[in-house]
Amino acid sequence: MPITTCIFDAYGTLFDVAAAARNAAQEPGREAFAEKWPAIASHWRLKQLQYTWLRAVMNTHTNFWEVTQNGLDWALEAEGLGGDGDLRARLLQLYWELDAYPEVPSMLKALKDNGKNTAILSNGSPDMLDGAVSSAGIDPVLDDTLSVESVGIFKPASAVYDLVGQRFDCAKDEVLFVSSNGWDAAAAASYGFRTVWVNRAGEPMDRLPAKPDTVLSDLTTIPDLANA
Fold first, then answer.
1. I want to staple 9 with a disulfide (CB 3.0 to 4.6 A). Which of 13, 82, 143, 209 is the partner?
2. CATH annotation of 5-15+99-227
3. Could you confirm whether 206 is annotated as catalytic?
C-alpha cells in the first residue's frame, strides 16, 4: 500500500539532543564545562534512554522530564560537575529549545505538499514536545504530536506504536516511521511499520529480531522515499 502517514521520533531525529550541551559550552564563563561537554552530552542521552527502558520493564513509569533530569544528574556527577547548580539549570532550560536539524522544516513541508499525514511519536512529555516544536517553528507542517504519556509506558512498548493507527485510522503498512534510534526503528519494523533508521553517526546495526527497512544519514530524502 502507498505511504499515507509519516511518523517521526523527536529527540535525535528531528531535534539535536546534543544542542543543549553544545550551546551551553559556547557561553562565557563555562570553560570547565566546555572541556567536558561532549562526554556529558553522550552520558546524558544514554542514561535518559536507559532509564526509559528500565522504568518500562519495572512498571515504574514517570514523565520524560523527570527521566531527562535524572540522566543529566548522573552525567554531571560522572564528569565531576555534579555540584554546579547553575550549569544544571541552564542545560535543562536549553533542552526546551533544542535546535532542529537543518533539513527538518523543508522535509516536513515537502511531505505536507505531497498530501502526507505528519506527526511526532515520542517518549517526550506533551509540554516538552510543544516547547521543542514551537522553538523550531515546525507547528504548521505537523498534524499532531503524540506522546507516550497517553498510554503510560515508554517505547518500544507496542501500545505506543498503536497510537498512530488510533490517531490517523491507517493500516500499519501505510506508515513510514522514522527514528534516529536503531532500536526504535527495529521495534517499529517488528510492529509492522515501514521504517527508516536515520543513522547520522554511522553506528553498527543493532542485533535485534527485526531491522529497519532503510538506513539514511539524514532526513533529506524522506519525501522521495515516502512517494516511491
1. 13
2. 3.40.50.1000
3. no
Q: Which CATH class is domain 19-95?
A: mainly alpha
Residue 200 phi/psi, 5-degree rounding, is: -65, -30
Looking at the chain, the domain(s) classified CATH 3.40.50.1000 span 5-15+99-227
State residue 138 phi and psi, 5-degree precision: -110, 10
CA-wise closest residue to 186 among 208, 167, 204, 201:
208
Chain region(s) in the chain for CATH 1.10.150.240: 19-95
The pTM assigned to this predicted structure is 0.95
- Cβ neighbours of residue 182 closer than 8 Å, sequence gap 6 or more: 197, 199, 203, 205, 206, 208, 212
Dihedral sign, Cα of residue 80, residue 84, residue 85, residue 88: negative
| 228 residues of the chain, pLDDT tens digit each | 899 999 999 999 999 999 999 999 999 999 999 999 999 999 999 999 999 999 999 999 999 999 999 999 999 999 999 999 999 999 999 999 999 999 999 999 999 999 999 999 999 999 999 999 999 999 999 999 999 999 999 999 999 999 999 999 999 999 999 999 999 999 999 999 999 999 999 999 999 999 999 999 999 999 999 998
517553528: which residue's cell? 137
Count Cβ atoms below 10 Å from residue 30 Cβ, excluding itself.
16
| Catalytic option among 9, 16, 99, 184 | 9
